[in-house]
Design brief:
The structure is a single chain. The chain has eleven helices and ten strands. The chain is globular, with a radius of gyration of 19 Å. It has a seven-stranded mixed beta sheet with strand order 1-2-3-4-5-7-10, with helices on both faces. Strands 6-8-9 form a three-stranded mixed beta sheet. By secondary structure, the protein is α/β, with parallel strands linked by helices.
Length: 262
């Protein structure tokens, strides 16, 4: 296990990295946590042995948001200098070249909800609560909540959540697409781990290309996206996993290949 700052712990087992927030009682995300998340993402992204990652806050709470007591002391100049740092950390997590899954128990609010949205998938307890309540503090989301949220739930729902600051129960979060799967309380991490194990068996470079293309699709025109897809598709014919996958399919049928990650 590696520790990043006082509150972030990273374990890697069987090619799956787990990033755990462990800051009692509600995992508030202060400047130290933000910086530590960015460093953890950089190290995980550079480790070719890591094939998937999970972000969790443990069995009780994912993350209840920013450290408001810390933030209350900031003035405009302070925030001009700091605002981009949390976005940089969250961007590093969002751009990890592997599948990522948030395992959500309890509250995922404000910066916590934004942290969950950096992941490719969100597995939540049936008792989880999500939301972007920044408006109730006279603020707006500042770590991706006005951008990633709309890409998940659409403009109308995003405006509803951000304008009202209301909390969203797990069943509604699933209905609107804010989370992808609901599980019994206390089992979100195990469910996320089951997903991660399945993705960890897939061809590493092909997954990396697929994630990059899908993430970029909202930011480029169709012609550009298709051209890039064609180039990366052709590039996969230079990988060992493409040889393994096609040979296995011809000989044994689909789903039986044992990829090497090369």
């Amino acid at each position: 296990m590696s520790e990043y700052g006082q509150w972030i712990k990273v374990t890697i087992e069987d090619g799956i990295a787990t990033i755990r927030l462990d800051r009692p009682k509600m995992n508030p995300i202060d400047a130290d946590v933000q910086e530590s998340l960015g460093r953890a993402a950089a190290d995980i992204g550079a480790d070719e042995s890591v094939r998937a990652a999970i972000i969790t806050g443990g069995d009780k709470v994912f993350a209840a948001g920013a450290d408001i007591k810390e933030m209350q002391a900031f003035d405009y100049v302070d925030m001009v200098e700091r605002a981009h740092l949390i976005q940089d950390a969250y961007r590093a997590l969002a751009e990890l070249p592997i599948p990522t899954i948030a395992a959500i128990e309890g509250y995922a609010l404000g910066g916590g909800c934004e942290l969950a949205m950096t992941c490719d998938f969100r597995v939540a307890s049936k008792e989880a609560t999500l939301g972007q309540p920044e408006i109730l503090l006279g603020l707006i989301p500042g770590a991706g909540g006005t951008q990633r949220l709309v890409r998940l739930v659409g403009q109308s729902k995003a405006k509803d959540l951000v304008f009202s600051g209301r909390f969203v129960k797990a069943d509604e979060a699933l209905e609107i697409g804010l989370v992808d799967e609901l599980v019994d309380a206390g089992t979100a991490y195990e469910a996320a781990l089951e997903r991660a194990r399945a993705y960890a068996k897939m061809p590493r470079i092909a997954l990396r290309f697929a994630k990059e293309l899908i993430n970029r699709s909202a930011d480029v025109d169709l012609a550009t996206g298709l051209a890039t897809e064609s180039q990366l598709f052709a590039g996969l014919f230079a990988t060992k996993d493409r040889e393994i996958g096609m040979a296995s399919f011809v000989e044994h049928g689909p789903g039986k290949a044992r990829f090497e990650g090369r």
